[in-house]
Specification:
This protein is about 55% helix and about 0% strand. The chain has five helices and no strands.
């Protein structure tokens, strides 16, 4: 499991998904920049990421799932 906070990734995706904030947070810089330049893939990509985060399948840059609901 990743040390990233799934709750924070979800909030970032909801509020700033169109600029790839959740991907920057997860360390996925290249795809985050692409998402930033395409406005979240016209928000479609951001919505798909939102679902992936909700279902616990979103991964960080080390390919570890961000699956725990941490409230630290």
């Amino acid at each position: 499991m990743s040390d990233k906070n799934r709750s924070l990734a979800l909030i970032l995706c909801l509020l700033f998904g169109w600029v790839g904030a959740h991907r920057f947070y997860a360390g996925r810089t290249i795809s985050a920049v692409i998402q930033l330049l395409t406005l979240g893939g016209l928000c479609i990509w951001a919505m798909i990421d939102l679902l992936i985060i909700l279902f616990g399948e979103f991964k960080d840059s080390n390919e570890l799932k961000i699956a725990d609901w941490k409230m630290d």
